[in-house]
Design brief:
Structural class: alpha/beta
CATH architecture: Alpha-Beta Complex
Number of domains: 1
Shape: globular
CATH topology: Maf protein
Strand content: 15-25%
Distance between the termini: 20 Å
Number of strands: 5
Length: about 160
């Protein structure tokens, strides 16, 4: 999947629905925000991006709970959910995407091998029901750049799916 084309499509859907996006990134290191801001006019539908690589930054910037980090680890759907919700709380956005994973080449375990990436998407449409959050885990192959590239694509496709639902 072509990242610029995907980012442009996501931007169109956000603009059409008058929604604003925020990103919370760990293993992708700001790549999702870069893809979004490469699109001309993205200031109309992108608020900000958080790059929270360390556990401390996830706690300080996004309000991720220490309990979740200790119980599940930074690479978990539980933490990705907290990252997405924290990004919404600490921004002016209604749509959030969060990514935390192991891009390698080291850092993997038997339970969480290199290529494991957890995603969460949150949307708060202002209907008084609060945010809807969805999370999933993917396992990608390849070197560090390939894993990160695949994670960016999945993150943007997840935003797209959420907006089209």
């Amino acid at each position: 999947m072509n990242i610029p084309t995907l980012a442009t499509r996501v931007g169109k859907y956000l603009a059409d629905q008058r929604l604003v996006l925020v990103t919370a990134e760990s293993c992708t290191g700001g790549w999702i925000a870069q893809a979004i801001t490469d699109v001309a006019g993205s200031s109309m539908w992108f608020d900000r991006g958080f790059v929270t690589y360390s556990n401390l930054s996830k706690q300080e910037m996004l309000g991720v709970g220490e309990a979740a980090l200790q119980r599940y680890g930074a690479v978990s759907e539980a933490v990705a959910r907290e990252m997405a919700m924290g990004a919404l709380t600490h921004s002016a956005a209604q749509v959030g995407v969060a990514v935390s994973g192991i891009a390698g080449p080291g850092g993997g375990t038997a339970d969480k091998p290199v290529g494991t990436v957890c995603f969460a998407w949150a949307i708060n449409t202002g209907d008084g029901k609060g945010a809807v959050v969805k999370a999933t885990t993917g396992c990608f192959a390849g070197d560090r750049e390939a894993i990160r590239r695949q994670a960016v694509v999945e993150a943007l496709q997840g935003v797209e799916r959420m907006l089209l639902a």
